[in-house]
Amino acid sequence: MKRDRPYNFLTLRFVDKALEDAYREDDFFKGLKKHRTVCLETIFLYSIFGILDWAILPEQKEICWIIRFFFVCPLLLWSYFFSFTKWYRKFRTANTFVVGLSISVGIIAMIAIAPSPGDYLYYAGLLLCSMSFYGRIPDQFISNFLSWGTFSLYLIVALLFTTPPGKVLFSNTFIYFFFNILGMLVCYSLELSRRLDYLQRFTIERQAAELKEALRKMEKERRRAEELSLQDPLTGLANRRRFFEEADREYERTLRYGRSLSIMLLDIDHFKRVNDTFGHAVGDRVLQRVSGIIAGTVRKSDLACRYGGEEFAVLLPEADPQTAQKLGERMLRSIKQSTIILGNEQVSISASMGIAGFSEAEDVPPHILLERADKILYQAKNSGRDRLCLWEDSADKVDPAGRLLPVRSANMS
Fold this sequence. Notes:
Blueprint: H1 17-48, H2 50-56, H3 61-82, H4 92-113, H5 118-136, H6 140-161, H7 166-229, H8 240-257, E1 261-268, H9 271-278, H10 280-297, E2 303-308, E3 311-317, H11 321-336, E4 339-342, E5 345-348, E6 351-358, H12 366-382, E7 387-390, E8 408-411
Helix pairs in contact: 1-3, 2-3, 3-4, 4-5, 4-6, 5-6, 5-7, 6-7, 9-10, 10-11
């Protein structure tokens, strides 16, 4: 199946209007410098060929110079400076028509007043003018209009105002006609080449942009997947993996700068009873409620995680055990005051907490802090729940029954 062309075969305009507008935008800025160069080149050539007027048309040179230096050259100079104004873009096409026709009319006027064989030299200048149209004007429609308009005007002037031999007029017309045919083909090829080149650049740039966007999305998805791999899906808190990664990082930083570090473990009281009595859906709501309270209580620098089941852990950088205790007491009070409404029933929530930490002069690895916090949490559970127990050095002591004796305990009731 033949693939559809992205452009119209005759006009070469892109089928996609947005693409055509983008091409014209690009072509305008590229053609701006070329237009100014052409204006200056034409002024120079028009002025230099004024020598021909003195050599070939000594009697009519004044009229020719008026045409050159008081009509065509000033118009070209005006067009040059006009291209620097904000109005040039709007009137670019009209400006090209006016300037192109003025150049042609100037040469044709000199053909009309030049005696034979001088008019043949100006005829050569007319061909040069048309060649410039086809080679320098990027739009084939404008090029063809100017070249064929010049050709038609030349025929009219040659028939009405000059008396060339029939064979000469025929040969000039024949040459000019096929010169324009060849010019049309060349102009068509040049514009097609420019458009295909732009289309290739546009496609490459678009594909590069799409690739960049795809890579950006992939990176975003990768980061999102990485975040999800470090996040508990039910509560939105960090999971154990992230907790241990951050704990190791904070421990190294704490040792480097001589700071404090504390860890708290929190366990929801009688959570199994909630699941058995009200179902796992209510149990999930309790977990979400407690996790929300924890997240709303901790500092920005702290890291809260769901440690497992109904157990939560909080990493508290730059917090000694006493600072962590104040934060934990506030957290347990908020949990105590929170309830889950189920129709006419209320599900009360409470939790127990164990805190372990070290100050600037100590060095206790995270896994030891967790062990201590877990032991002291166990003590809080055995002491009646709904309370906070703080590990201190003397907490290593045990009672006759083998139970830990925490130094400080706070009941939330």
